[in-house]
Amino acid sequence: MPMHLFAYGTLMCEDIMHKVSACRPAHAPATLGNYRRGRIDGEVYPGVVAEQGGLVRGIVYFDVPAEAWARLDAFEGEMYYRCGDEISLEAETYVVRPQFVHRLLPVEWSLAEFLESGRQRFEAGYAGFEQLLPRRS
Fold first, then answer.
1. pTM of the predicted model, to two decimals?
2. DSSP string for 71-94
3. Do 96 and 79 meet the contact criterion of CB atoms below 8 Å apart?
4. Over residues 52-61, mean pLDDT
5. What DSSP designation does 109 have?
6. Is 5 exposed, middle or buried (0-12, 13-18, 19+ CB in 10 A)?
7. Could you tell me which CATH class the domain 3-131 is placed in?
8. CA 9: distance to chain centroid?
9. By the 8 A CB rule, do 61 and 17 touch?
10. Phi and psi (nearest 5°) for 126?
């Protein structure tokens, strides 16, 4: 059964989502309540952690096919785990694992800043992700 994905960082860029997931799901603006987004120390991408009263703006990709989830899991790596949340629509999102929370800065991550100054560095560091294989458990 296809699930939805709430994206709050680099996967908000449709072309990056396509490179990673090998699909082009329909999408719409969305928000995630009771979480906060921050920059990851030393990186150009963000992470989210639970925070009462927090609000993260992003997008939701609808009906992401099963084969795309294995690629997405491999892309997100060991720092994140997939977490289901239901507010008005049940969707999965990637949350920073507790052992990596120390890397999350108190500074909000900005998509505009990423597009202007971080995207080129990000894509150079993740070249070849079009051939993502699922990570081993």
1. 0.77
2. HHHHHH-TTEEEEEEESSSEEEEE
3. yes
4. 94
5. P
6. buried
7. alpha beta
8. 5
9. yes
10. -120, 25
